[in-house]
Predict the 3D structure of the following.
Amino acid sequence: MSETFKAILISRDADKRQRVETVDMTPDQLMDGDVDIAVEATTVNYKDGLAITGRGPVVRRWPMIPGVDLAGTVLTSTHASWRAGDKVVLNGWGVGEVHYGAFAGRARVSGDWLVPLPDAFSAKDAMAIGTAGYTAMLSVMAIEAAGVTPADGPVIVTGAAGGVGSVAVSLLASLGWHVVASTGRTEETDYLKRLGAAEIIDRAELSGPGKPLARERWAAGVDAVGSHTLANVLAQTKYHGAVACCGLAQGMDLPASVAPFILRGVSLIGIDSVMAPKPRRLGAWQRLATDLDLDRLRALTTEIGFDDIVAAAAQIVDGKVRGRLVVTM
Ligand code: NDP
């Protein structure tokens, strides 16, 4: 008899009403792929929250097992790079959107999408990082590639108490930056200071309509929020500074002007984690293994069970999750 495993399944009726249920599945129901993985840990990202609540158009094939991140052990493989017993990590590539994802005991995926689990991390650590943390790392690398360094001035992180924000604060502090953390949850001041933030500002300072240019406050930024917040971050970025744009928690719009770019030579760098090519992913995971302080990572992580995923999905889109969530299977 074929082994069964639990999975979260999102389906939609003829009126496009969405239903989310936990079902028992067998491996023959999985989609095509050349590597089968026993999922050991996963996580709930903002995007998973949008998928499960239906508040954002993340799922593009129905029905779908959501979950964009997984860590686990290879069970079987016909892919040249992987064999049974290998520890692997998967972030993105449309998993949980168009290909059955991580919220299941087993996954069948393309071996091309996998990276090896770095020795420095357990499956749980890798999922405490997840797409959010790997995106934070890509953002930090983008600022470095723009040639901006801690000697140039402070860095601002928006959405600081969220997943991307918390990992970005930790990484940047470890790398010697003076980190300004922007948050709507000023009650999380102690938490953000423990992660290494030097200053906390209320996100209300940045979230309303602002001027095209304002006083220069920071040399760099990691923005998980978009909209007026990103416009104000740009307007307050120092001459030749760089801002990595990776999220849209406030909105997808960008009500900004060209002034910071043409008068201060500011760079705005787009960050995409989902389709990032493999060398960049490997580079980001190597940097996480060397630069991310594991004590800080554990301080920003909350562990939940498989049965808590659906409730956590609603909480994360309401901005109520602090740091990162890890799901152990
Ligand atoms: P979280 O929900 O964990 O964090 C988002 C944070 O944004 C919240 O914690 C909150 O921080 C802040 N926030 C929420 N709502 C608002 C609002 N209306 N106005 C201003 N700030 C707000 O999500 P993640 O960290 O997982 O993801 C953050 C963003 O990055 C999302 O938009 C996500 O889609 C995007 N993302 C993009 C990726 C890419 O490849 N480009 C990959 C991963 C994520 P606080 O309470 O501190 O104010």
In short: The CA atoms of residues 18 and 54 lie 7 Å apart. Residues 45-47, 131-132, 135, 159-165, 183-185, 203, 207, 224-225, 229, 246-250, 271-274, 316, 319, 321 surround NDP (CB under 6 Å). The chain has two domains: 5-117+300-328, 130-270. The mean pLDDT is 97.
